[in-house]
Design a protein that fits this description.
The chain has 17 helices and 24 strands. The protein has 498 residues and is α+β, with helices and mostly antiparallel strands. The chain folds into two domains: 261 residues, Aminohydrolase, N-terminal nucleophile (Ntn) domain (Glutamine Phosphoribosylpyrophosphate, subunit 1, domain 1, 4-Layer Sandwich); 167 residues, Rossmann fold, CATH 3.40.50. The chain starts with a strand and ends in a 26-residue tail after the last helix.
Amino acid sequence: MTELRESQRTSDADISNDFDMEEDKLREECGVFGVFNHADAAALTALGMHALQHRGQEAAGMVTFDGSRFNSERRLGLVGDHFSKKGTMERIRGDSAIGHVRYSTTGETILRNVQPLFADLAGGGFTVCHNGNLTNALLLREQLIESGAICQSTSDTEVILHLVARSSRSRFIEKFIDALRALEGAYSLVALTNKKLIGARDPLGIRPLVLGDLDGSPILASETCALDIIGARFVREIENGEIVVITKDGIESLHPFPKVQPRPCVFEYIYFSRPDSIVGGRSVYEVRKNMGRQLAKESVCEADMVIPVPDSGVPAAIGFAQESGIPYELGIIRNHYVGRTFIEPTQQIRALGVKLKHSANRMAIKGKRIVLIDDSIVRGTTSVKIVEMMYDAGASEVHMRIASPPITHPDFYGIDTPDQRALLAATHTLEEMKEYIGVSSLAFLSVDGLYRSMGFDGRDDLNPQFTDHCFTGDYPTPLTDQHGETEPRQLSLLAEAG
């Protein structure tokens, strides 16, 4: 069997639960990256992971193949904390590699959940990393365990390894397709064997995946910004339901699923993708500015300045200011150097809340009527603190405008949303939300306005163009693991399974 050499120098017991209790943003689960047949595969993968760091800051992992064995490095923390060190990179040399970054969370963190996951199969080593979430992973896991499988992690990705291993098909790629046929939900996968780099996207294309080329070496990545950092050429997006099999003979494209209209996740445009990425042929930055412009058309107000909530609200605030004619100002200054462990997280320090990361530009704000622009409201706790900060700095009026519709439903496709009862817009009317946050006025971008921002006349209710269930409740796939449950019940990278 192919040998796996692995370094996991952080034990589960070493992980602290030092996190920001007041964090009030949606979290995207992962970013994936892969390189085939390049002498600097490990270094390129580390750079690609670094470019995708915004998709996950909790953990990072890489597996390489050097012609005789697989080498694995999986660590808690940021890419730069581990994969910039000479000793680390020497341990994981190879001419093909895949890498994964994982988001941070308030749940328990254990190293064995960090991807890529590896298994020694009958035909050789197989390693895979996953962006998304499977909505039938718990059912599949229970069935696998009942039939004798031994699970080593609580990640839904491990189900894929077992399904591939247990397939009765003869060829590896047929086993892989066999496994995918059993899956429900959202996935973009990058996998590696001793001969192949494989990319796969779920039938609806909910999670993103692109193909690039660097001097003849194929690249797979969650976003185009990861191609840019290594100087790779963008080739195309992997299509919904497509599998690409990359070998030294070239690239083979397979379409094993019935063709359906793609429904990519609309939150890639609202929040998750980096502004300099191109998603679905659209500039994420321009789309976010368009959201701000459309928001201004729908809900302009009398004010002296437009202020973004940094950093996510910046492009929309620029668009809002351009459309409304209200001057754009930096009324909130973000401290980018506050680490989560920079000071002992006592209750007194936690009470400082958002002030550790954001400060008011008092001289600009004092006596002014301001419009705060943010990308979304989840629980609303951060919005309350920022509004309080604006009033404390002397603002005479604070109006809040949100460049997306109200989030009323939880996500089960790879976004860490709270239970529906914790979503502010699911439990409060617009007027109640305004009173809770403490603003002079509050307005959200409409659902049709969101679609207009991306070049459509509005939402096609019969054949929606995007996965937008957080706003509409229209889930595009079965939610098998949720049936009959009052609490969200899904395998994820969040915590131990019960």
